[in-house]
């Protein structure tokens, strides 16, 4: 990936960005504010910048005067970086950033990725679950009339030192013709036992040498989105990847409505069929994209939350939503993929990640396996934030987990202009602390339609940092900025005026939205605190935080700590794992070590029911402030605010502190 | 079973028969000849006997004069024994039996039956494959919200000391509702591992206490007939039994024609469907008869020859009939019964007996397991005679086997009036050595239609004993008895005149029939001799012979030795196992010990290919005489013949001796 250096003047801030990145995103990454309210679509023309050296591509617009274009002015949202450049932000677009004393960590911190084969081998983790072996068998004759399967097994024993072999019926059914199709030269697919005492099963035979083509599919079954990867079991490479909306969405947006639907006559079958159809679509897409035969696929590994897992396996999730919230099972046996309706060959087994409880599912377990925290000394806090926030604390010696219901705020629920992360959703914002003019970025660079969860965190963090709201989430009533107003009796901040949106209405964030959001972040924070307390620890004991999930990948770490969503620790001790569920599924496709360890892990993981833990409510109430009633838990935030207080810029704190 | 004593005068021969047996069968069992040529239908009126004491039921006929009835005369074929009786055979019906010096062993010798539970336990053989355990689980509450399966598994671990438990997906699917249907009181079905290191699988859960109802089905898949038994796994009892013709019969009478049909497009599917339909019919019949729910059936175990097994499992048997006669496999994994199309619940596994080779199949292995010879010190010759005769020799330390193709003579093939064992088939015969008048018994006591295999053995043995044919199977050309005649250039003996048959033709046995028969018996005898030679042994080393199969059960031991079909050993060292395949299937339904031992057994059994053994042809040629070229192998027969020779009654021996 080619990267270029972008230098912003007069701030003299530098950032490295990938070839083709837009200039406005480079500015956002560098912490440089440029006024922009159309989300990056080029409609407002406010983000005029001057190229001082280097070349930009595009960015010429009718919104720029011809002589300005000649001088080197471009629209930052339309111009892309194609060389090292120096950019001057004109006065009208410039931000008074000095006063903010921002934490200078860039948004993208270190990511953990799945180890490759060499790393797996080095760490002693590589035990291939499926191997293909090419064999040249002696054909039978009157003196050697071993049965076909016995011939294969004997050869594997003698020539390949294989022992304790079992054979599937499907192999018995096809072996007579397969052996004779290519003069007894065949490739056998061997499925290795997870436990050492188990048998190696011969699950497939193919004529000729197909040992080079041994593939697996890994799938993350999300409530909203299903992601699949095609993995080469010979090289460990990901050959293709694709995501689709979970077809169940038309029967309910969240887990609870899906469960309700599954309880209706025929509902379970329908939801099962939908997710199977979604996965089949993904399998079709990624095999076509990689140009491989679906017949080369030897296994499929999957992970999802407990409800998604039960629906995938056609297990009624009815009791998951009824107290005391009991799932049918947490450990699932391997199942024939074709029996579930997947478009895979008869010999392919589907292996699903075990869950811990109704609300700590296989997706979380997969994340824990994928990031490797279960093998590390380091005490890790693992978090996956969505409607529910699942929290895991532990290391290689012990592990505890809990789920807390944050409500739908992070998915846009309970927020007037809230929306899912989709095109037109405001995902990033910077607000001028003096003028309160915003710099908005939307997903897909479209005119704004609403605010997504990650945008909301940044927005509230930003508003709190610049003193637009106080620690209770209330606006300064004395403010005379036109963007801060009372509408229908509720105070709000206008992010985008109607004429710059897709919805022809002012997009704003009001105090009710903020209150709902604070409840959500409070629930998550108090979940972390309560779980830490239950295991006799505090934030100071944490060696690191791992953030998983699509949401986790987009969250602005600084802002998340500023508002008290995440415990404050040094930013370089926070890592993003991205789709942890998918990387866990990939790991279990690659090595039996993971398949073995995960069973042990789920057995040893202590699950806490927060609603049954008395301290949870106290922790929750203490967390209903920005960032928290106890500012000592957030020393950096405290330091910044004290500095600003000294500068006289802080909104009057509320009685919380 | 009530038995009565029947005494025949003037012979003063006694026999014990079951209540309700016909008098003529009692006479046959006692070795008393009564003229009778209508097969026992009451049509010829020749079998007039006088009741001297005791009571008979029935036997009064228009063929008897009224005053004779008053005197106590009855037709032996129509009268049944209902008390101890003394019967006088009148002169006209009497046989000159004295000269024959028959071996006095009754036809029915000791039978080996499957051990019952107590015996299995005493012998350390009882390891139940499937157990049902009733459990009262504590219902979940806010402090105890274990997942359903975990709740079940924990309880089994704590309260029942069960370990290493696996759970099938079907159980996960049903457990939430089953637990809540009867207040968490459930019965779990546990499938025990065959190998000690294996897992116990929970294969079913049912509401309430159903532990008393734990059934299995055992099936013998014969080429002609399929037999099924319903077995109570709690008591070990056989609750019901039923046989049906194998539905595949319409696609070919024997194994070879079935294989040919299976090679046609759709042929394999059709044959598979047919045998499945036959087994389903049997399951329906035996469950209805026993008045049990098919849902109580926990397992099905099956055995059949290699072709029947492959057709049952839908494995193409194409290469079984092509040199070098290679089956697809000999060991088969357990398969879901419902997947094969059997009308059994989803959790029921079908376990099929392993084969040794294309021609020594699972039916033979099942017989060896069922009779227990593999656990005994005694050196045993195990034989199952049909179109092929399968022979096993060995004891607990070693085992060798072979199959020899006898041709279809024993099933009536190549015999002019030959037929399968069915109603109207002559199954037993006695011939007056002076008058050559026959005493015929037919299956179902119908007028004769033809001769079945077991009848043929007796017939040829009888004809040879009384000197009607010589040791080459040729008639005495000087005979002037009307029943011995030349027809269309071939010598024959008339068994029944046209007016006493169902077919309105004289039923006879001719020299071509006898020649075909001698070839068949010669093949079997030489198979035994060759196999014994291959393992460095002789007949004198045999401790016992076990005869299996429907045919084996009906064979007349004395006659079989007289003609040289079986090696001559003391009759009390010969036992009949009946349907050994079925009893083996029953054994593997009852105990895992058998399931474990059988795998070891088939691995250790040496299979000989007789056609590849040079001495086989020499042995075969030597066996093409009655009983054999070497009369020293048949000392009793030799002794009898020398006695008769001295009495001047023997037909001139042919140049064979």
Offer a few descriptive terms.
Nucleotidyltransferase, domain 5; 657 residues; alpha/beta; homodimer; six-stranded mixed sheet; 29 strands; Ubiquitin-like (UB roll)
Q: Strand order, biggest sheet of chain A?
A: 14-13-12-15-17-16
Structural class assignment of chain A: alpha/beta
The CATH architecture of the domain at 217-352 in chain A can be named as 2-Layer Sandwich
CATH hierarchy class name of the domain at 217-352 in chain A: Alpha Beta
Quaternary: homodimer
Percent strand of chain A: 15-25%
Question: Can you put this structure into words, describing what you see?
Answer:
Two copies of one chain form a homodimer. By secondary structure, chain A is an alpha/beta fold. Among the domains of chain A are: 3-97, Beta-grasp domain (Ubiquitin-like (UB roll), Roll); 117-207, Roll (Ubiquitin-like (UB roll)), CATH 3.10.20; 217-352, Nucleotidyltransferase, domain 5; 368-407 and 530-616, Nucleotidyltransferase, domain 5. Chain A is built from 18 helices and 29 strands. In chain A, the strands form seven sheets. Chain A has a six-stranded mixed β-sheet with strand order 14-13-12-15-17-16, with helices on both faces. In chain A, strands 28-27-18-19-20-29 form a six-stranded mixed β-sheet, with helices on both faces. In chain A, α10 packs across α15 and α15 (580-590) crosses α16 (592-604). Mean pLDDT of chain A is 89; it is low at 93-109 and 652-657. The interface between A and B is large, with 45 and 46 residues.
């Amino acid at each position: 990936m080619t990267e270029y250096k972008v230098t912003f003047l007069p701030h003299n801030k530098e950032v490295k960005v990938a070839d083709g990145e837009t200039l406005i995103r480079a500015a956002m990454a560098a912490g440089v504010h440029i006024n922009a309210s159309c989300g990056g679509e080029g409609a407002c023309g406010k983000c005029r910048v001057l190229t001082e050296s280097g070349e930009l591509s595009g960015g010429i617009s009718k919104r720029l005067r011809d002589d300005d274009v000649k001088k080197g002015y471009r629209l930052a949202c339309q111009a892309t970086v194609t060389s090292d450049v120096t950019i001057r932000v004109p006065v009208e677009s410039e931000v008074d950033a000095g006063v903010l004393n921002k934490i200078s960590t860039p948004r993208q911190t270190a990511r953990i990725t799945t180890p490759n084969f060499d790393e797996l081998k080095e760490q002693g983790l590589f035990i291939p679950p499926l191997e293909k072996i090419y064999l040249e068998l002696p054909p039978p004759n009157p003196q050697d009339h071993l049965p076909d399967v016995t011939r294969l097994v004997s050869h594997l024993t003698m020539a390949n030192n294989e022992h304790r072999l079992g054979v599937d019926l499907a192999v018995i059914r096809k072996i007579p013709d397969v052996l004779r199709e290519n003069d007894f030269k065949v490739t056998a697919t061997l499925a290795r036992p997870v436990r050492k005492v188990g048998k190696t099963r011969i699950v497939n035979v193919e004529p000729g040498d197909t040992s080079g083509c041994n593939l697996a599919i890994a799938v993350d079954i999300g409530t909203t989105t299903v992601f699949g990867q095609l993995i080469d079991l010979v090289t460990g490479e990901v050959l293709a990847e694709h995501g689709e909306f979970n077809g169940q969405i038309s029967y309910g947006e969240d887990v609870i409505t899906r469960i309700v639907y599954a309880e209706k006559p025929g509902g379970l079958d329908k939801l099962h069929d939908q997710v199977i159809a979604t996965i089949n679509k993904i399998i079709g897409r990624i095999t076509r994209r990689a140009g491989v035969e679906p017949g080369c696929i030897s296994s499929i590994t999957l992970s999802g939350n407990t409800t998604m897992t039960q629906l995938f396996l056609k297990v009624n999730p009815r009791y998951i939503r009824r107290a005391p919230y009991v799932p049918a099972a947490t450990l699932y046996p391997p199942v024939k993929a074709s029996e579930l309706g997947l478009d895979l060959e008869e010999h392919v087994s589907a292996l699903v990640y075990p869950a811990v409880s109704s609300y700590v599912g296989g997706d979380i377990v997969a994340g824990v396996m994928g990031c490797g925290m279960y093998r590390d000394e380091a005490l890790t806090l693992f978090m996956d934030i969505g409607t529910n926030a699942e929290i895991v604390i532990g290391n290689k010696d012990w592990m505890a987990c809990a789920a807390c219901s944050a409500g739908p705020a992070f998915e846009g629920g309970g927020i007037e202009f809230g929306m899912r992360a989709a095109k037109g959703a405001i995902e990033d914002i910077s607000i001028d602390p003096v003028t309160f003019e915003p710099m908005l970025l939307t997903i897909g660079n479209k005119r704004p339609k609403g605010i997504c969860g990650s945008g909301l965190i940044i927005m509230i963090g930003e508003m709190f940092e610049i003193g637009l709201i106080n620690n209770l989430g209330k606006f300064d009533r004395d403010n005379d900025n036109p963007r801060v107003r009372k509408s229908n009796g509720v105070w709000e901040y206008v992010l985008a005026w109607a004429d710059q949106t897709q919805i022809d209405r002012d997009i704003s964030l009001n105090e009710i939205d903020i209150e709902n959001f604070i409840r959500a972040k409070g629930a998550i924070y108090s979940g972390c605190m309560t779980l830490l307390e239950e295991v006799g620890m505090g934030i100071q004991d944490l060696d690191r935080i791992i953030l998983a999930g699509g949401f986790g990948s987009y969250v602005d770490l600084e802002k998340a700590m500023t508002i008290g969503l995440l415990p404050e620790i040094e930013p370089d001790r926070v890592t993003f794992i991205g789709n942890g569920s998918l990387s866990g599924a990939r790991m279990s496709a690659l090595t039996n070590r993971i398949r073995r360890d995960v069973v042990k892990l789920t057995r040893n993981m202590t699950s806490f029911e927060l609603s049954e833990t008395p301290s949870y409510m106290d922790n929750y109430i203490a967390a209903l402030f920005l960032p928290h009633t106890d500012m000592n838990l957030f020393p950096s935030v405290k330091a910044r605010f004290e500095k600003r207080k000294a500068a006289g810029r802080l909104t009057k704190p509320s009685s919380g502190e």
